[in-house]
């Protein structure tokens, strides 16, 4: 991203200082780092991406590797919030010269930072931004769109489970003729999912979003309906998600994981089982509504990697594949996707 | 037709000519009705005047003209928004009508009639355009297209001319009767939609001014601690409801309050406004929570309504010895907050009191708490523990169990985590108003 933002200067020194502030749970030091960059004329968007978001990623990695306790992660997140607040105060002092835009996370999306980055990036460029924050309910979005009448909207989806509700955001926006740009890691690495869901444009990064928004058409047609059959199946899966997930978790744990993972403590098994089952079910839903099957292969790869790093045998994966085929008998399209894509990356041990 | 059959070619020719004309007429009618259907479906999605204006301009060009402008009248002012032919929108530009020099646009405003001006026939070409487009920048955009005809149509709704649609066409493509009819039909549809949008905006304006006084307030910074809050209204589109919180004070003593008015929606929100104001006034005289709650009870009881309020109220002062906060706490029919120690231990202070507004002359009891640096008090309303999802109520037990891992965390993080857990528990189910307020001791 260092090339995309047009900033030649390295911010490594500042990032190191900022990370040290997170380490020491020192809000004042973190705020000092970001405000001195802003005072030097560095773009708020660059500060958000290359300092705040970059450091947040580091924290996440430390937590994943088990290096940091949850309490330490919370303390560091608190420091990030203080720094973000300081950047917010800075951009709000910039005069409004641009159009109006409404930014929010889809329902079920709780990672607010990416949307916040775009929010401050646009605000720093004079846009009048209405920021709806995490997990925007569709009712609230619809009311805000009528009240504000923005030139564009932006929706952020980081987790796969939020992508079907991202469609709701897109429908609300385009239904009122308002162009919508979609972004976030759940959309994948190209525009296929965003286009399938009816977005006007796809943004690969926050910088991209900020460049795309001013070029959107003034008026767009309502997003076309999604293919009826897969949509109906996805809606049913969503409705029965709790039951489906519980059944899969219990059976996978009982019939496969417990026997295979004796050396590991039960808590670890539970965390892996819960995360994998959620991810797989949501990936299937995403494949149904977007027609993008690659999400299943990606999820299998992610699961194999998770099992490997946690020291679980990869044959657990084929066990889950068999379970899915059995439990998804009422969802023929989803079962078909499992049948077509469930390939375990390593040779199987019977 | 039979009689014409003798002539080998002539009959076919006539028949063809006739049917071509009929087809053309039919096609024209079909085309028009398809266009107007399209207009209706595009206009259905918006109640916002600016968005409606953009939609109208988008549909008018190029079907009704090479360039289009919408003027909305407001007394002697007009707001002009135009399309530049390439898809970009210019405006709104504010102009004022000059009584001394009635222009074409002004005539439309007064009588609501259609005016067709031929640029070529006017002594000064810019005059025809000038009469309809009283703004230099917009007129410049229109003039670039070398227009031959300028058509202005009144936007009439409910017997009032609320604005005008101005379209222009270049040479060799003026406005015939058919196109003129279509522009007028389009303007009719446009007027009704814009009028509804204006009405809606007026109402929204009134509502949002009133709402803003009922919305949760911005929290102040307090001495010796930090506060954070979260609010989700049952009616999410309204953003107001029957739960409320407030933090106010100064000179090292602050009052915190979290409450819940019976009922939800607008009526409840109005009562929360009154309760908050009463608390503010009472706190001005005596910050003891028990005194504040007695005063609130008297005021609400005197109103002789059958409505009641539950409240938890705390007053907070820095404790120089511990670096933490000294807290006095009282409740009126409201559950006590959780006290989350920095090390993750969870306690719930023993305190009770009768709900407010139902019985006269109640007195309340203050309990005293010491918050050491990193300790938190978490206030909540029943919308939190009565949130009902597929697995039943969220419950106080689930809330209590999730707290220890947030020991010592920032209050924002605690509030956000609880809100998230509750909303995920709901999993899309409807919910009551929900409010959270967290106070953390230590700078």
What does this structure look like?
The complex is a heterodimer of chains A (350) and B (443). In chain A, helix 3 (44-64) packs antiparallel against helix 4. In chain A, strands 2-1-3-4-5 form a five-stranded parallel sheet, sandwiched between helices. Helices cover 61% and strands 6% of the residues of chain A. In chain A, helix 5 links the parallel strand 1 and strand 2. Chain A contains 15 helices and five strands. Chain A is flat, with a radius of gyration of 22 Å. The N and C termini of chain A lie far apart (45 Å). Chain B is an alpha+beta fold and 443 residues long. In chain B, strand 2 and strand 3 (89-96) form a beta hairpin. In chain B, helix 2 (49-60) packs antiparallel against helix 6 and helix 7 (265-285) packs across helix 8. The longest helix of chain B has 38 residues, at 177-214. Chain B is elongated. The interface between A and B is large, with 33 and 40 residues.
Brief summary of the model shown:
With 350 residues, chain A is α/β, with parallel strands linked by helices. In chain A, 61% of the residues lie in helices and 6% in strands. Chain A has helices at 12-23, 27-39, 44-64, 70-92, 113-124, 138-148, 163-175, 192-196, 206-212, 228-239, 241-260, 266-290, 294-309, 315-327, 332-341, and strands spanning 100-105, 128-131, 152-156, 180-183, 201-203.
């Amino acid at each position: 991203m260092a090339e995309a933002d047009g900033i030649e200067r390295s911010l490594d020194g500042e990032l190191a200082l900022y990370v040290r502030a997170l380490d020491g749970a020192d809000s004042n030091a973190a705020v000092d780092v970001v405000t001195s960059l802003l005072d030097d004329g560095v773009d708020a968007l660059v500060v958000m991406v290359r300092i705040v978001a970059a450091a947040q990623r580091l924290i996440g990695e430390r937590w994943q590797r088990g290096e940091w306790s949850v309490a330490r992660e919370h303390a560091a997140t608190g420091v990030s919030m203080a720094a973000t607040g300081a950047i917010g105060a800075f951009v709000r002092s910039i005069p409004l010269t641009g159009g109006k835009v409404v930014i929010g996370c889809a329902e079920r999306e709780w990672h607010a930072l990416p949307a916040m980055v775009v929010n401050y990036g646009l605000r720093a460029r004079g846009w009048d931004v209405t920021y709806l924050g995490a997990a925007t309910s569709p009712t609230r979005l619809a009311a805000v769109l009528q009240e504000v009448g923005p030139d564009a909207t932006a929706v952020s989806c980081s987790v796969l489970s939020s992508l079907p509700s991202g469609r709701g955001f897109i429908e609300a926006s385009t239904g009122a003729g308002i162009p919508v740009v979609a972004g976030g890691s759940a959309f994948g690495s190209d525009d296929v999912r965003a286009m399938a869901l009816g977005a006007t444009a796809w943004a690969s990064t926050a910088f991209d979003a900020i460049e795309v928004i001013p070029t959107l058409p003034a008026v767009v047609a309502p997003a076309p309906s999604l293919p009826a059959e897969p949509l109906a199946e996805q809606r049913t899966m969503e409705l029965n998600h709790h039951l489906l997930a519980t059944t899969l978790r219990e059976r996978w744990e009982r019939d496969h994981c417990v026997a295979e993972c004796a050396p590991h403590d039960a808590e670890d098994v539970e965390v892996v089982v819960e995360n994998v089952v959620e991810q797989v079910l949501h990936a299937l839903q995403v494949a149904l509504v977007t027609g993008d099957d690659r999400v299943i292969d990606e999820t299998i790869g992610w699961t194999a990697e998770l099992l490997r790093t946690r020291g679980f045998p990869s044959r657990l994966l084929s066990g889950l594949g068999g379970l899915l085929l059995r439990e998804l008998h009422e969802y023929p399209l989803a079962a078909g996707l499992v049948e077509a894509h469930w390939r375990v990356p390593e040779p199987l041990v019977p | 037709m039979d009689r014409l059959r003798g002539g080998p070619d002539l009959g076919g020719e006539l028949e063809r000519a006739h049917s071509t004309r009929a087809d053309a007429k039919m096609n024209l009618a079909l085309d028009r009705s398809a266009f107007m259907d399209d207009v209706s479906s595009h206009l259905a999605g918006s109640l916002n005047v600016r968005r409606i204006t953009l939609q109208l301009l988008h549909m008018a060009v190029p079907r009704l003209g090479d360039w289009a402008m919408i003027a909305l009248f407001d007394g002697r002012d007009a707001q002009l928004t135009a399309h530049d032919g390439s898809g970009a929108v210019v405006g709104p530009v504010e102009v004022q009508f000059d009584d001394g020099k009635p222009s074409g646009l002004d005539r439309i405003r007064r009588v609501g009639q259609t005016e067709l001006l031929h640029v070529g026939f006017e002594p000064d070409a810019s005059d025809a355009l000038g009469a309809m487009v009283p703004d230099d920048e917009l007129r410049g955009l229109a003039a670039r297209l070398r227009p031959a005809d300028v058509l202005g149509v009144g936007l009439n709704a409910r017997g009032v001319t609320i604005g005008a649609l101005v379209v222009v066409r270049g040479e060799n493509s003026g406005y015939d009767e058919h196109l003129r009819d279509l522009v007028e039909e389009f303007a009719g549809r446009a007027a009704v939609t814009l009028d509804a949008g204006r009405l809606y905006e007026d109402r929204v304006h009134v509502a949002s001014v009133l709402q803003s006084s009922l919305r949760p307030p911005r929290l102040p910074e307090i001495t010796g601690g930090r506060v954070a809050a979260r609010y989700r209204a049952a009616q999410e589109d309204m953003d107001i409801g029957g739960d409320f919180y407030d933090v106010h004070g100064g000179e090292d003593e602050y009052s915190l309050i979290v409450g819940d008015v019976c009922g939800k929606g607008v009526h409840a929100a109005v009562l929360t406004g009154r309760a908050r104001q009463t608390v503010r006034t009472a706190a001005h005289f005596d910050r003891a929570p028990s005194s504040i709650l007695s005063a609130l009870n008297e005021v609400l009881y005197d109103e002789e309504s059958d409505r009641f309020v539950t409240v938890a109220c705390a007053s907070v002062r820095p404790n120089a010895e511990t670096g933490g906060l000294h807290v006095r706490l009282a409740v009126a029919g409201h559950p006590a907050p959780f006290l989350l120690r920095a090390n993750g231990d969870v306690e719930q202070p023993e305190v009770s009191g009768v709900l407010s507004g139902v019985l006269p002359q109640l007195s309340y009891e203050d309990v005293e708490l010491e918050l050491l640096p990193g300790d938190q008090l978490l206030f909540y309303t029943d919308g939190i523990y009565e949130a009902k999802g597929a697995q039943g109520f969220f419950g106080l037990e689930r809330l209590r169990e999730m707290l220890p891992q947030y020991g010592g965390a920032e209050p924002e993080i605690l509030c956000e985590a609880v809100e998230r857990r509750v909303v995920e528990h709901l999993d899309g189910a409807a919910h009551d108003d929900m409010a959270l307020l967290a106070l953390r001791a230590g700078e």
